[in-house]
Amino acid sequence: MDAILLQILNGLDKGSAYALIALGLTLIFGTLGVVNFAHGALFMLGAFCAVTLQRLLSLSFETIDETKTDFLGNPLKVKTPYVEGWFGPEVGGAIIDWAVPLSILVAIPIMIGIGFAMERGLIKHFYKRPHADQILVTFGLAIVLQEVIKYFFGANPIQTPPPDALLGVVNLGSWLGLDLPYPIWRLVYFLFAIVVIGGVFSFLQFTTFGMVVRAGMADRETVGLLGIDIDRRFTIMFGLAAAVAGLAGVMYGPIVAPNYHMGMDFLVLSFVVVVVGGMGSLPGAVLAGFMLGILESFASTTWATTTLPGINQIIIYLVAIIVLLTRPRGLMGRKGVMEE
Amino acid sequence: MLGLNSKDTMLLIVVAFLALAAPFLLNPFPTNSSLAQFNAGYPDLMQRFAIFGIFAIGFNILFGLTGYLSFGHAAFLGVGSYAAVWMFKLLSYNVIPAIILAVIVAGLFSVLIGYVSLRRSGIYFSILTLAFAQMSFALAYSVLSNPKFNLTNGETGLQVYGDDPQILHREGLPDVPHLFGWAMRDNFLELEVAGWEFTFNNGYYLCAVILLVVFYLAIRLFRSPFGLMLRAVKSNQQRLNYTGLNPKPYTLAAFIISGMYAGLAGGLLAAMDPLAGAERMQWTASGEVVLMTILGGAGTLIGPVLGAGFIKYFENIFSKINDNVLHQWFAFLPDGMEDFMVFIVHPFVGKGWHLTLGILFMLVVTFLPGGLVEGGQRIARLFRRRGKKTDTPDPEHHPKETPHVAE
């Protein structure tokens, strides 16, 4: 029992990342009808927002401390981050410590801006072109973004530690008499994902803006004929989808150290998630994301890998193939979206 | 000639000339001149031109004719390489059985993948092929290299060891891949003419001859009723269904043929250098062949070969350029300007080749969807227009193009 629950928990963090990226992909596909191969790159950019902020906050100046000397008797140079200089050591230290969660505030406007720029600058010109062209141009863009990041940050993974308070392990099952050790940050990531997903859904469900967007997804032409500038709203949705992918990336840094190709690694799997969930279905994408994450976690147990070696590497693809062949529309795919 | 009309014969002759005279054509600069770094006439690179040309021709049969965009074609290349190296390990270093087995295994593998993937079209097809290729990569990388059943040798890559059986290997045959005694890595002729050096490599000429054969086959396929049928699948699959034709067997056949081309390319890669690694199957490798085809011009005969040559050439040249070379180039500028120019160009060369590639790719897809071939045609038209009045078709009296159902 403990083992099963633990595997479910272990699948949640990866599942959250899949769900968030797949949600953005589906939003873009459902609104603009564009297959965005650069979405993984947006996830990566989000993670590097956190890296950049952490580096900026840690910028420090050197002072000579007369009271301390090194072993040669020279006065010791002490590095103090500017932030600590401005706010005092305690507040400043806390700010640096909480750099990753703080990056959320920075990442949202940046990612929305990047999303706008992408949509207006590039993708706008590809609405009328075949899907193959959209795939190819966004694929090219993904390569470019990835290489730019590699140029500035190098090819090695960069550690982005979470705040000290959220470091460590919590036993989730103690009040049930179960033994479920679980890293706190992963729990935070899962809760964060739930909040973001809930936010996107309630935005679409309970605001007038969201209502218009949903109407546009159902029938773009009619909404346009009613005198609503649907293109502008769809552009905003693209920015929102970019922000969701970015946020997923920001918070993922402490789980896996960000490197320049992390986006591509996630993109392939997220596409599989979208297809399994059903093209154009938002709940499908979220559900399939968590499902496949948990499935992958079960496949990685020692029991599974000894009976079927390597099953953890291929389980997601296997499931995708089976789903596509038996339920071509995906688990919750809508009728009429991307059908033959 | 050979069942081709005069235009195609011309094309074949031009390609044959380019392929066979490549050691001369690709070495236009004397060996000791400062421009020698732009020479491409050395065996290793020429072999890659020919091999990736074959790969791209094969990919084009699927993508250019039927419009199905496969994002997992490198899997067949990798499978071909593994098959060839296994042949080296078990039989002998002769390349003929290795290449034949590579083609057969890749063909069988593509029957399997094609049968499943072709049940869906459009983006689903792309994602299915991508998923299959990633799965094969994962399998080759880790699963199939366990000690009990070591098929791929994992991260190290499959290679030939001294204690392999090699049952057909006899004394006197070279211990490297060879064709009845001619080692692939040897040069049968090295010319030195007044500062120029030309090398004629056994391996390259094998690749070039095979390239010509498969290029000829591709021309025949493009002009055949079968090729016409594949174009019909691309232009309007629904209409094809209504006329009572089942497009599935045609697309599957195209998929298998293109998989076999990829297997052939993989086998040749292993024949030139008896090593097979899983990274050949990774999706970036699949992306590369898509790039080559698009860049050259999908659906045209010569395009993929041009694209493959273009990308491999610039990959090689660009990766060699470092800051010293850049300083030499801009030496004529005043010092400040020189450093500035080097600073600007630096990210795009050397290790930044992929950045240039990505930008180039976006530009081509956006502005020149027909690739280099379309670019050439546009330029040719520009010159022709000077002479006579244009005869552009009247848009009013032509039916609109219907979008591909798979798109």
UniProtKB/TrEMBL annotation, chain A:
Topology of this chain in the membrane: Multi-pass membrane protein
Entry keyword Iron: no
GO molecular function per UniProt: transmembrane transporter activity
GO-annotated biological processes: amino acid transport
Subcellular location: Cell membrane
Transmembrane segments: 15-35, 42-61, 98-123, 189-213, 233-254, 266-295, 307-325
UniProt keywords, alphabetically: Amino-acid transport, Cell membrane, Membrane, Transmembrane, Transmembrane helix, Transport
Top-level division of the source organism's lineage: Bacteria
CDD domains: TM_PBP1_LivH_like
Family annotation (InterPro entries): ABC_transp_permease (IPR001851), BCAA_transport_permease (IPR052157)
Cellular component, GO annotation: plasma membrane
S-adenosyl-L-methionine is among the record's keywords: no
Family per similarity comment: Belongs to the binding-protein-dependent transport system permease family. LivHM subfamily.
Protein name (Swiss-Prot/TrEMBL): Amino acid/amide ABC transporter membrane protein 1, HAAT family
Source organism per UniProt: Tropicimonas sediminicola
Organism ancestry: Bacteria, Pseudomonadati, Pseudomonadota, Alphaproteobacteria, Rhodobacterales
UniProtKB/TrEMBL annotation, chain B:
Classification via PANTHER family: ABC TRANSPORTER ATP-BINDING PROTEIN, HIGH-AFFINITY BRANCHED-CHAIN AMINO ACID TRANSPORT SYSTEM PERMEASE
Membrane topology annotation: Multi-pass membrane protein
Organism (species): Tropicimonas sediminicola
Protein name per UniProt: Amino acid/amide ABC transporter membrane protein 2, HAAT family
Major subcellular site: membrane
Annotated Basic and acidic residues bias: 389-407
One function term, GO molecular function aspect: branched-chain amino acid transmembrane transporter activity
UniProt keyword Acetylation, yes or no: no
